[in-house]
Amino acid sequence: MIGGGSLKDFLARYFPVFMGTILLGCFSGSTLLALAGATYWRALEPSVRSDYVGLGALALVVVLVLANLMIARGRAWAVWGVAGYFLACLAVVLPMIAYRPHQGVYLFAVLFPLLGLLLLNSKRHREMRGKLVDIRRQRGLIVQAARASHKRR
Q1: 75 φ, ψ to 5°?
Q2: Are 83 and 117 in contact (CB under 8 A)?
Q3: What value, to the nearest 5°, has the Cα angle with vertex 14 and ends 11 and 16?
Q4: d(CA 113, CA 117)
Q5: Which residues of the chain, if any, have pLDDT below 70?
Q6: Is 90:101 a contact under the CB 8 Å cutoff?
Q7: Among 4, 55, 61, 110, which is most exposed with the fewest C-beta within 10 angstroms?
Q8: Whole-angstrom Cα distance, residue 77 to residue 72?
Q9: Angle of CA points 127, 132, 137, to nearest 5°
């Protein structure tokens, strides 16, 4: 691994927190869509409602995967994509209380994005993002040096 560290040590330290944010994102999106189907879209025909839930799941998965992929590639700005994802899930779920949804599902639909934001702001996740940005910078310097030595030949 670039920087002299071991990939095994890096993964042992940071993989659980990285996967935790992904799993909390999946849980946030799934509880959001379950509640949306039971509240906002309850007057729709079941086949149309299932189409909306499917398209919503597809859109949420694309946003979550791309933002986390950019984090893994060392892009510092990508954390705002994941934070925006959690905030959007929370902003859509909070007004659903007016429809009197199932309280257990509603509790989890509020809890998962909050836990995701908490994990995103944890010391270990911030440390991981910093190391990934450093690795990206070092990789860029290596590529630059290789191009410079290739031009000299």
Answers
A1: -85, 115
A2: yes
A3: 95
A4: 6
A5: 1-4, 153
A6: no
A7: 4
A8: 12
A9: 125
Q: Rounded to an integer, what distance in angstroms lies between the CA atom of residue 24 and that of residue 82?
A: 11
| Selection from 70, 69, 75, 89 nearest residue 25 by Cα | 89
Distant-in-sequence, close-in-space partners of 74: CB < 8 Å, separation ≥ 6: 132, 133, 134, 135, 136, 137, 139
pLDDT of the residue at 7: 86
Which pLDDT tens digit goes with each residue over 98-131?
999 999 999 999 999 999 999 999 999 999 999 9
Tokens read off for 9:
């040590």
- What is the reported pTM? 0.90
For 113-142, the DSSP string reads HHHHHHHHTSHHHHHHHHHHHHHHHHHHHH
Distance (Å, whole) CA 129 – CA 135? 10
- Exposure of 22 by Cβ count < 10 A (0-12 exposed, 13-18 middle, 19+ buried)? middle
Q: Which residue has the tokens 């836990």?
A: 115
Record the tokens describing residue 33, joined without a space.
């869509």
Alpha helices in 39-152 (DSSP H): 46-72, 79-93, 103-120, 123-152
Write down the residue that tokens 């702001």 correspond to.
Answer: 121
